[in-house]
């Protein structure tokens, strides 16, 4: 059974900053990473969904990863998102990440294609065998339309460097089964973190930590040290922020960047299409949620 947190307890699936012309703002992206590490994060996940990875090129992903590694790699873990719906593309990203020298890769099940479990295992195996970096598998059927079945998880444990899971399935009891297989399980949903911890999870890969990192770190620490009442109190105090950042239709990178703008970390909230930046009414609602949670 795994009780270790190989990448730390709190990580954030971090946003990617863009210039007005749509190009990647590497200085802004590095500033986001530094902000996260200064506010309770043990590590960052680069070029995941919140980093708008479906819209960035291999070259851009490499530039983003290098900028973040240079900014925080000496004091936090840096995980490279390499998941795509094309196996060769993911293999290329994994090899690039290894050359850059990060701490691990995040590998989501292929989205849109809807492969069966044989296809999912083929995809995972191809990417896992392309590098020696530690791997965090990512299960988020709400985005991929495919659930990673337990037999696939069991098969992937034959690779020593497949060590953890980011689970955003909402199937909290299954966490205990993944732990029995030897995985370190991270919650992939901020609002469900305490439930994952109760079933043997080790931490959180967050979106809300763009604004609430220090408080989320304290919540996880409280749970880990046995002060479950304090962990629940912190969770409850953050409920308005969870709802404002993740509980609206236009959420994720859009709300994370708008929160960073409200906090003064960024001077804009630009995203790439097909996402559209929050409008003024949406920003006002986000502000209200952050204020209610005591974050602004």
Automatic annotation (TrEMBL):
Active-site residue list: 138, 166
Keyword match Ion transport: no
Entry GO MF terms: 4-hydroxy-tetrahydrodipicolinate synthase activity
Pathway: Amino-acid biosynthesis; L-lysine biosynthesis via DAP pathway; (S)-tetrahydrodipicolinate from L-aspartate: step 3/4
Subcellular location: Cytoplasm
EC number: 4.3.3.7
A UniProt-annotated Pfam family: DHDPS
Entry superkingdom: Bacteria
Keywords assigned by UniProt, alphabetized: Amino-acid biosynthesis, Cytoplasm, Diaminopimelate biosynthesis, Lyase, Lysine biosynthesis, Schiff base
Entries under InterPro entries matching the protein: Aldolase_TIM (IPR013785), DapA (IPR005263), DapA-like (IPR002220), Schiff_base-form_aldolases_AS (IPR020625), Schiff_base-form_aldolases_CS (IPR020624)
GO BP annotation list: diaminopimelate biosynthetic process; lysine biosynthetic process via diaminopimelate
Binding-site residues for pyruvate, renumbered to this chain: 50, 205
GO cellular component: cytosol
SUPFAM superfamilies documented for this protein: Aldolase (SSF51569)
Assigned protein family: Belongs to the DapA family.
PANTHER family membership: 4-HYDROXY-2-OXOGLUTARATE ALDOLASE, MITOCHONDRIAL, DIHYDRODIPICOLINATE SYNTHASE
Matches recorded under NCBIfam families: dapA (TIGR00674)
Function according to Swiss-Prot or TrEMBL: Catalyzes the condensation of (S)-aspartate-beta-semialdehyde [(S)-ASA] and pyruvate to 4-hydroxy-tetrahydrodipicolinate (HTPA).
Complexes and interactors: Homotetramer; dimer of dimers.
Name of the protein in its database record: 4-hydroxy-tetrahydrodipicolinate synthase
Organism, as annotated: Nocardioides exalbidus
Taxonomic classification: Bacteria, Bacillati, Actinomycetota, Actinomycetes, Propionibacteriales
The encoding gene: dapA
